Amino acid sequence: MSALGSAPRPALETAAMVRAGELSAVEVLEHHLATIEAHEDDVRAFTLVTPDEARTQARAVDAAVAKGEDPGPLAGVPIALKDNLCTRGLPTTCSSRILDGWRPPYDATVVTRLAAAGAVSVGKTNMDEFAMGSSTETSAIGPTRNPHDLTRVPGGSSGGSAAAVAAGFAPLALGSDTGGSIRQPAALCGVVGLKPTYGTVSRYGLVAFASSLDQIGPFAGTVADAALLFDVIGGHDPLDSTSLNRPTPRVLSVLDEGVDGMTIGVLAEYLDGVDPDVAARVHQAAEALAAAGARIEEISVPEVALGLSAYYLIAPGEASSNLARYDGVRYGLRVDAEDTAGMNTATRSAGFGAEVKRRIMLGTYVLSAGYMDAYYNQALKVRTKIIEGFDRAYAQCDLLLGPTTPTTAFALGAKTEDPLTMYLSDVCTIPTNLAGHPAISVPFGTGDDGLPIGVQLLGPALAEGDLLRGAAVVEAAAPPMAPPALTASLRGGSQENREGVS
Fold first, then answer.
1. 200, 123 contact by CB (below 8 A)
2. CB under 8 Å to 101, separation ≥6 — which residues?
3. pTM of the prediction?
4. What percent of the chain has pLDDT over 70?
5. Which is nearest to 384 in space by CA: 471, 461, 307, 495?
6. Hey, is 158 helix, strand or coil?
7. Active-site option among 95, 96, 134, 157
8. Which of the four pLDDT bands, split at 50, 70 and 90, describes residue 488?
9. Cβ contact 212:316 at 8 Å
């Protein structure tokens, strides 16, 4: 195990060493399983850890290397999967009671592509129920904790995936981003999170929340690792009717090209109302991009201020339709009653949590006769206006820059009683989903409270190459940030912290 060292090793380096026979995939896996065993009870990043299946995958990678074969670009790299990605024969619950006991008969396309690339899946990660939340506190199994401070949230809905990477449980993870659910937890946990262009990564096998917004994407410890993972999972899939039937940008090969000659706009609306320490980091990132040769200018896209309102009409509307399938007949939980209608009602009442019920009711209302034109269709018009606003901005700028979140990680329980305040956590990320564009969050130092801050780069459709080039520059200039001191946090005065979040 000495070859692994104590510091986390990037996925790119791990894969190269495994492919060269300098490390075994089994050795890499056991190192990460030991880290999970040591700290998972405190972080609670997973709904399910799969050591036996992972060991089988790791042994297959080592066998391929021994035969002189190339196991793939992710050879032996552990990866964690958000629990809304279908995994054949393994529970997929979306952190909801209504899917108790459901084991999909197929793998999501991204899961298949990961296996073909030699990755080793270590388990399914916790999430807000059906991806509806911003803190991973709506999970039916309880919240995940931020590895940087166990009294704080990791963000959401992909909080388990972000926490798994931050805690060193896996170098890579997959999440889904409907309104910021990759980028927001990446920022709060101090890791890289990429939301790709809608349609560049197959959604086949992703349990749907809002089908016109959902997008699978990577979490990683470095920009290069995120680029590597995107290159593996991206590309057309005939099983997904929304998959773009055109070449997906390859990004790993362009990381070193820099930003010289680019114009990058600092998005004025995204700096309104954010904490001063967050805004200061955005300005520092802009200075770093300017020093690397980019032209920086302030730009305004007034339409993004309407994003939150439009999102919370469109997304619940699509959710109410998608979640109608959970009726006690075809999937998971079933609560018996005297007749079918009673069984449907009893099952959904017992199976869905409060936030999911809230969004189903809101979505059903805005799609109902007499209200659809007044609410849902108006929100679609606003969505078009947001797209037009971004188009004007990208006519002047190659990329946009802003904060990923308005604040650093907030305390567990601080916003659970105030849904509107919770929704505001995604105010900087939602407009990108409405437009279908890519965006990436990169760690950039810490706030006044010592917790991670993420800055966000946004680009037009299929601009992942430019985004990753900019992200690499930002990453290289980032102020130092200490890794989560999980071992230290569980010693000495840690008992108080544990009691505070029990």
1. no
2. 91, 332, 333
3. 0.95
4. 95
5. 307
6. coil
7. 157
8. very low
9. no
Tokens of 203: 């959604």
Please work out, in degrees rounded to the nearest 5, the angle formed at the alpha carbon of residue 402 by the alpha carbons of 400 and 406: 155
- Confirm whether 82 is a catalytic residue: yes
E strands in 56-171: 78-82, 120-125
Return the structure tokens found at 65: 């290397």
Alpha-carbon span 232 to 336, nearest angstrom? 44
Peptide bond just before 157 cis, omega within 30 deg: yes
How many percent of the chain have pLDDT more than 90? 93
Could you tell me the two tokens for 68? 């002189």
pLDDT tens per residue, range 362-381 = 999 999 999 999 999 999 99
**Tens-place pLDDT, residues 214-257:** 999 999 999 999 999 999 999 999 999 999 999 888 899 999 99
Q: How many Å separate Cα 368 from the centre of its chain?
A: 31
Torsion region of 50: left, alpha or beta (phi above 0 gives left; psi -120 to 50 gives alpha):
beta
Are 440 and 152 in contact by the 8 Å Cβ rule? The answer is no
How crowded is residue 247: how many other Cβ atoms within 10 Å of its Cβ? 11
The pLDDT of residue 486 is 78
**What is the distance in angstroms between the CA of the first residue and the CA of the last residue of the chain?**
34
Phi, psi of 58 (to 5 degrees): -65, -40
**Active site residue: 95, 121, 181, 425, which one?**
181
**CATH code for the structural domain at 9-304+383-500:** 3.90.1300.10
Residue appearing with tokens 């810490």: 446
Is the pLDDT confidence value at 4 over 60?
no
Domain ranges of the chain: 9-304+383-500, 305-377
CA torsion 269-372-380-315 (nearest 10°) is 70
Burial label for 383, CB within 10 Å (0-12, 13-18, 19+), is buried
Strand ranges across the sheet with 78-82: 46-49, 120-125, 78-82, 172-176, 216-220, 192-195, 439-446, 452-458, 399-403, 263-267, 295-299
Q: Is 157 a catalytic residue?
A: yes
CA 443 to chain centre: 14
Please, which residues have CB within 8 angstroms of residue 319's CB and are 6 or more apart in sequence? 130, 132, 209, 210, 356, 359, 360, 363
User: Are the C-beta atoms of 307 and 386 separated by less than 8 Å?
Assistant: yes
| Triad 377, 209, 189: Cα angle to 5° | 115
